[in-house]
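Model: You mentioned two targets. I'll fold them one after the other.
Researcher: Yes, keep them separate.
Model: Target one:
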Amino acid sequence: MKIPENIQKLMLKYILNDLLPNEASELSAWRQLSAENEELFQEETDPEKMRANLRRMFASKAIVWEKIRARYPLPLPDLPVEKPPPRIYRFLRVAAMVIIVVGAGLFFILQKNNANRIEPGKGRAVFIDGDGISDAVDEFQQGFLTGLAGARTIEKENGEYIIIAEPRSDVIPNKSFKLYSSRGGEFTLILPDSTPVWVNAETIIRYPARMTDDSSKLVIAGEAYVEMATDRKKPLLIVAGGMHIRTGGGRINISAYPGEATKATLMDGSMSVQLDASNPWADSVILKPGEEVQAIDGKLFVFQHADTVQAAAWKHGRTYFKQARLETIMQAISRWYRVDVQYSKNPPNAAFDLDLQRQAPISIVLYKLQQHGVRFATKGRTITVVVP
């Protein structure tokens, strides 16, 4: 009996422990259809059988590899050198991937050469000194700047990087510090008043050394998610991409990357937005939860039914887009995976959906887009979108 292709894919994800709840239900329902289905499932996921199949495949691996190259005209690494995996669970994991991949045609997972694999981002942050210098700052100087800011750093086992900005009473009024997350980096900043701010890749954030005035100000160039108590006594002013956001509390995602439309999405709480704080006649709006405001060509536009899930997906560890343009998706991929993206022709105007764990290998991200007809050529850290 031939296993349906969609079930083969689900088996692969089962072995990788990457099944979504609806996929787990689909696989379980197929197994329960018949005793034969359950027997096939047990055979395909049996470690002993996988080891035996893998040995047979390695006996003619050069032939298998060339067949895959011929069938799938996409960039593949050279045939990997066979090395005994250091631990048995890695052997079983690779064995499972190879066997089910060949059955399902999922060649992309065969990229075993870790040296050539592009990894997702991780927690990291850099303090910027008074001259705005962040590049080539050695570890000693970074430690000095961190101490100067009165901050503590915590790096958790899961890779989360946290900077705790302690309240400072020994600094001049309006003193501020700047932090930077490079491409492929992210961190969490705990402000002096204990407000958490999640900072996305390629973002600069400036925060006040003390937050004891009637209002405190954050300046953001990039993307950040701010979570404040809804009963906040002192308003917070956020300046991002020309927007002046004033809030008394709530959860807000702000995206203000240079060259892109600035937008602020309100999950809950309240906030008002003005384009020019010094001009009382400037465009201004008051947002309700679930709304988003965008600054386009010097004007504010409010979207009443914003996709709050998409806006905050990065903060929750997801790469999630719904009916998004390919350029928008590839910009996010470029920042998180530290790759350069170029196009062979003008990018298509089609909309795409994408929903993956943020730590997924880039090969899986590209494969998901390839299912929608997008083609790529990869060389080093440059990805070319091949437009027909």
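Model: Target two:
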Amino acid sequence: MTTHDSSIHLGAPEPSLGAITTTCSHGSMVIRIVGEFDDCLAYSPHGDAALLAAAHATGDVRVDLSRVAFMDSRAIGWLIRLRNAITTTPGRCVLVTDASPRAARTLELTGMTRVFRWNTCS
């Protein structure tokens, strides 16, 4: 079993501003987003690095939004970029898991609950 854990954190003085952590195991990836998920995080070099790592993963990508305190339209754009990068390979999907109430509400209001899979990839 090969497990690769690489953490990518926004270089902010307080971690509550926003962080992206990626974990890879058996080709699948988990991306955990914590704190404020806005353009400062989504379109930072750290956000780009997470997208690139996910595009090279061979399995499904799970996005854990359980600790997102704030999410804006730029975060939605980042999630769509992630989905587009992953779904170019047939059979792969982006699965959103454990969205915080605020993140879930943002995804519902923008219609993204119909775009992303929730809980299972089947």
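Researcher: Noted. Anything on target two?
Model: The two ends are 24 Å apart (CA to CA).
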